[in-house]
Design goal:
homodimer; Alpha/beta knot; 6-stranded parallel β-sheet
Chain lengths: 184, 184
C-alpha cells in the first residue's frame, strides 16, 4: 500500500469555497463553559472534518479570534460556522425554535449510548460541558435527552475534545446511513 | 433526567486494583514519533476508558514520568500498561511475534474505513503517526493494512488524540459485538 501524497489528499478535500456552500450534516455542537482554548480549537477542527452545521460557544467558552484557538483548529475557524451566546439557556431556546433536538453528553440516569440516535432525532445539537463539572443539572433539564459514551476503565470521563470527536463521527456515520444508505 | 453524583459514577467504574487484573480489550495503540506530551497524556486517558491492552510508545514519543503527561492523562498512566521501543520497526517485530495484526491509521490508496475491522483482525495494534508527517512509508510497508477516518471538510486530518479516540471506541464497540454479542 502507498501513502497518498499531499496533492492527492488535497484533491479528496473540499476547497474553502466549496466548504462554505456545501450541504452540512445536521449536527451542531454547543460548548457550555469550556475553559481550554486548545479544546475549543480542536473541536473546531473536528467540526470541519465532520462537516457539522454549526458550533455554538456559550458562557465563558473562549471565542475566535484567539491565537491558541487558531493554532489548534489549523484554520478550521474559517470554515466552520459559529455563534456565541452568553447564556446557554438562550442558546437552547433559539436552537429549539430552529426545530433542533437538544442532547446533553453527560452521565445521567438515562444511560442512552451515543450510538443510539435515531433518524427522527436529526437535526440535533449535542451539548458538551465544562472540563471539570460537565453540564449543570438546570441545563440538563432543558434538553430532550442525554447520551453517554460507555467507560471501561478507572477514570470518570474522556477529554472533552476526544469525546466530541467520538460523538461527531458516530453521528455523521448514522446520519449518512439514514439519509444516503451509506454503510460504513 | 438526573445527572449522576460523583459516588454513583465511581460505582460504575473499576477500582485501580480491578483495572490491573481486568480482562483488557485486545486493542493496542502504538505511537510513532508523537511530539506533544498533551497528546500522549490524552491518549493514555482514552486507552484507560477503552480498557485497551497496551500503549506502545516509540521513537521520540515522550514517555512517563512527565508532569505534562500525568496532568492530561489524569492518572491513567497508573492503569494503562505501556512499553517503550526506540525503534518502531523493532516494536512491530515483537508485536507480530505476539500474533497481533498491525494496522496503520493513515491516508493510503487502501481506503479501508476504521469501521471495517473484522472479528479475525483481533488482537490488533493501531499505529498513529507524528502530528505533522504521519506514518513513514517504510513503516506502512511493515503493516498488515491501513485504515482511515473519512474526512468531510477542508482540513487534511484530525488532531491525533481525537483520531485515537474515534478509532479506539469503534474498535471496542466492534470487539464487544463480535465477542459478547453486545449491540450498541
Amino acid at each position: 500500500m502507498r501513502k497518498l501524497l499531499h496533492n492527492e489528499i488535497l484533491k479528496e478535500r473540499l476547497t474553502i469555497e466549496e466548504a462554505q456552500t456545501a450541504q452540512k450534516h445536521p449536527i451542531s455542537i454547543l460548548l457550555h463553559n469550556i475553559r481550554s482554548m486548545y479544546n475549543v480549537g480542536s473541536i473546531f477542527r473536528t467540526c470541519d472534518a465532520g462537516r457539522c452545521e454549526e458550533l455554538i460557544l456559550c458562557g465563558y467558552t473562549p471565542c475566535p479570534p484567539r491565537n491558541e484557538i487558531s493554532k489548534t483548529s489549523l484554520g478550521a475557524v474559517e470554515t466552520v460556522r459559529w455563534r456565541y451566546f452568553k447564556d446557554t439557556t438562550d442558546a437552547i431556546y433559539y436552537l429549539r425554535m430552529e426545530n433542533k433536538k437538544i442532547f446533553a453528553l453527560e452521565i445521567t440516569d438515562r444511560k442512552r449510548y451515543y450510538t443510539q440516535i435515531k433518524s427522527k432525532d436529526f437535526p440535533l445539537v449535542v451539548i458538551l460541558g465544562n472540563e471539570l463539572v460537565g453540564i449543570d443539572q438546570f441545563i440538563l433539564e432543558l434538553c430532550d435527552d442525554a447520551i453517554e459514551i460507555p467507560m471501561f476503565g478507572v477514570k470518570h470521563s474522556l477529554n472533552v475534545s476526544v469525546a466530541a470527536g467520538i460523538v461527531i463521527f458516530e453521528l455523521v456515520r448514522l446520519y449518512r446511513r439514514f439519509s444516503f444508505g451509506e454503510i460504513w
